[in-house]
Amino acid sequence: MNIAKRLALTALALPLLAPLPLLAQETDPESGFVIADGWQTVKANCTVCHSAKLVTQNSGSRNHWESLIRWMQDTQGLWQFRPEMEATILDYLAEHYGPKEHARRPPLARDLLPENPYKQEDQASG
């Protein structure tokens, strides 16, 4: 095989050997969100109240993201989503910010944690 053919084959094979981070997906320069189906919906809804970094630095299963949405709705004043919009948001977050391999272990169950020495006793009962 001549040198030109070897170089051509090598050039074609190199992208296949590259690690996945080198083949990273395109991101929105303003928010850092991966540009894929649903990213504009996520950006439009999530960045109203907080930085996109709060989303992009986190990860979790679809159930985890749903529980965060419910917590924000119950305690932080987040509005209710139409079902199709919520599905778009959850699909996007689960796919692009899903659980990370080799990440930290899941948090311990509350009953396995030691007593909090800084917890304030209820003033009304004292």
TrEMBL record:
Keyword vocabulary terms for this entry: Signal
Residues covered by region (Disordered): 101-126
Signal peptide: 1-24
InterPro entries documented for this protein: Cyt_c-like_dom_sf (IPR036909)
MF terms (GO), sorted A to Z: electron transfer activity; heme binding
Keyword Signal: yes
The protein's name: Sulfite dehydrogenase (Cytochrome) subunit SorB
